[in-house]
Amino acid sequence: xxxxxxxxxxxxxxxxxxxxxxxxxxxxxxxxxxxxxxxxxxxxxxxxxxxxxxxxxxxxxxxxxxxxxxxxxxxxxxxxxxxxxxxxxxxxxxxxxxxxxxxxxxxxxxxxxxxxxxxxxxxxxxxxxxxxxxxxxxxx
Length: 140
Prior knowledge:
By secondary structure, this protein is mainly alpha-helical. It is built from seven helices and no strands.
């Protein structure tokens, strides 16, 4: 169950980040009031990030994701720091907010690739366990 939850959570993050880019563009080119929604969604993105960080540390089967999930958390925290820098007048540093979102997306994609690789490896192991061994074929 935890591998499925991690997969679904990881799949949701690129969509949420893409939505953030859309909301930012909408706020810039159409209605500045959308920035509020962008901020709320940005805060809510923390929930899937925490799920992706927590489960690999709680489940031995998800151990290969630990460091990438921790990297994702650090990138997300940097994203929040960049917002506070903008509010504090450090707009040049805060301009790294969009590229950092791309870095966050890249980290999630690495997590998804690692999940896929682990799933293929587990499937191959299961298939190998179910196949009759060479010794069994000779005795038949």
